[in-house]
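[job 4471] stage=fold_predict status=RUNNING
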Amino acid sequence: MKKFLPYILILIIITGFLTISKPANAQDACTVQSAVFNPSGEQSDNWYKDKTKQSVQVIVKTENCQNKTLELSIREADSCVGWCDNTIPEINRKSMQMGNNNTFILNLKAGETKCDAGFGFDCNYYIEISGDADFVSDGEPEGNLLYECDAVAGYIGCLEDWIVGPISFGSSIQDASRQNVVNLPAGGTTSKSTDTTYQPLARLPGLQESYDTAKECALGDYLNTIIKIIIGLCIVLAVFMIFIGGLEYMSNEIISNKEHGKERIRNAILGLLLALSAYTILNTINPALLNVCLKLDTVKIAIEGEVGILGKTAVIDGKTITACKEDDMVSMTLFGHSGVRVHKEIKANLERVNARWLAIPEAKRYKVNTVEGYVCKPVTNKPGYWSAHAFGLAIDINAATNPYGSTLKTDMMSPPSYPNYPFANVFALEGWGWGGNWSKIKDAMHFSKYPLAEQGNGKLN
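[job 4471] inference complete, writing structure tokens
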């Protein structure tokens, strides 16, 4: 009986811990009770205007989600199939650290991302929650927001991005009042977030409630605390092993077992002394040796303006197109400019684009000063990638006033052509993607037939 006494005592201790600890169950799981728009449902025909964007709130109420992380996305209930998707890049998997809260409100300015001008409502948005809880608001009460684009019938014109504003948290739905819609600026972009605070999801003893990562040696302060916590754990484990060794020594009459218990105690004490002496010696020699300070260099990431096509051949609309193949290029007149070289397979399509432009009243027509088509060139700093221009599948319009950059700069959305006759629509209606709609970078001069990456429909004619 004495032989099994240590194991019985260990089993009793473990059972005690399990009994005291509250078991996780479905009732304690983080769940989303509701995710709604304010306002919600169907809006009037003239509710949305590009120049005076409407303020919108996303209000999310949860249960048992304190100290959890939720990811918020807004999707457009797209009816198209194939190459298109319903992801809103401006609000895609936006991380929400719940802290001690169960409710949050995200303040927004409505846009037209992924909307489709046509029958029914152009825009039909819903909310998707992921992370520590899953929820989709599509079809739920107040879970959809429907309205028309600010576009003329027959034109796509759904080009405006959503604008993301501040987030407010509350412990209940009353704390985060749905009446306080934040008035964000109607145009342009919001200021970049300056919050550099790191808040642990579960606070360990000795850790601060939050760490300012912009502070010098912020990571070092965090690691210094972790080192002390590890030493504390060593002490706890050593005491536990001494306790087990003592039980083994007292509960056995066999000499060899007693020696094993004594050896366990000696090893535990030795490990404890090793951990404490290492800390004490370093602290005595120079306390600075225990203060870790890691200074990490800032890394700047340059985003390429043009996505490009991998390899010198591409299959478009069932046909193999080869980069820099002069024999496949033809000249045409486009927007009043002769000698524009393009791939022969898209000439007829571009003639229809040109006809749409000519059909606009001359006083309202966007003035095209420069046109660039086929150019045999690779993509800069991307070995193996070739520009869509090298395949004759891209057109650049007025490069001087529609530059490539991190923010959209274009005169294509200015009078007299805009808003009634947006120039980008003469291309969009024939299946061309526009660089002004790209999410990570803007290249407003660039129109491309290449699918997916450059947002063209991949149809040659």
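[job 4471] summary: Residues 194-296 form one domain.
[job 4471] exit 0
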